[in-house]
Amino acid sequence: MTDAQLLAACAALPRVGHLPPGPRNTITDVAGLRVGHCTVAQGDLQTGVTVVVPPVANPFLHKLPAGLAVINGFGKSAGLVQLAELGQIETPIALTNTFGVPAVVQAQIAECIAANPECGRSLPTVNALVLECNDGYLSDIQRMAVTADHYREAVESASYSVAQGAVGAGRGMSCFQLKGGIGTASRVVEMADCHYTVGALVQANMGKLADLRWGGVPVGAALQQRLHAKEQQAALGDGVDKGSIIMLLATDAPLDSRQLTRMARRAAAGLANTGSCYGHGSGDIALAFSCAYTQPADVNEPMPAMPMLHETLLDPLFRAASDAVEQAIYHALWHAQMVQGRDGHRRWGWQDLWKD
Questions:
Q1: Which residue, 2, 13, 141, 319, is most buried by CB atoms nearer than 10 A?
Q2: Considering its fold, how many domains does the chain have in total?
Q3: Which residue ranges in the chain fall short of pLDDT 70?
Q4: In which family does this protein belong, per the annotation (predicted)?
């Protein structure tokens, strides 16, 4: 591939699939969802926290149905075992770095106790939900810099407008050995006389550059050559796929936890379309949840009486999930700027590759 062909292939952001996006083209197109970030960018510390806040005042008391797909289980997240068993989420969904999980778990527990003083006493304990990727290449992860204050700041900053790229939990992420991070997208599905939205948010930290496909075009090998030409000492690592990706899918479609698990599995299709093959050391986890209804914690409250979508109607939602995840990964790459961190390590941002 010549430089001119490479530039032509990579100069525009791919538009994935034929389904239309929502008005923001973010996960917050699912009504009521908000996203907040806390970014730590201080020399050798390039890390942070990202939080997806559900449209429920107290998710411990009114839980959202959810499903989980562990595509490759190399990871240290918290809360997934109970989520897989009960099919519910009862806290905001937090993303951070691997060694930041304990601090964010404690922050979520404290947040729940403050809102529900009998949590862990007359009420059950809370299932804190914290997912992670390893940002140790760019950030000094051993300093365990993520604190409960970072989680609270992310929650307090949550809004419908979602910053993307090297922000929040995406600050130290590497994607296809370039700068990765947080990406989000949405797709709208029309069904008879109604429509449903599927939104995706990813924490993209996976892949080998040689494998990258940009909107279906295999550009990785040529990008590798371009990167080496720009910087002879460009560090790509050992060529082993040992990153991770967290893929969150939200919808306003009335699905039960089993159907949401099926939707979560389709995130793998969108991931594969970018060139990732989920290497041995890559933790690839997808979580899908619905905001169409809640499930009460109190046995005396009635369970929702809402008809679920028929199984034969799910294909468009599966397509939306795959397309939104793929689009979100491109957005993470497209928006991420170059970051230099620990021991002089740096990752080139997508836009930086084309600067003289």
A1: 141
A2: 1
A3: 232-242
A4: Belongs to the peptidase S58 family.
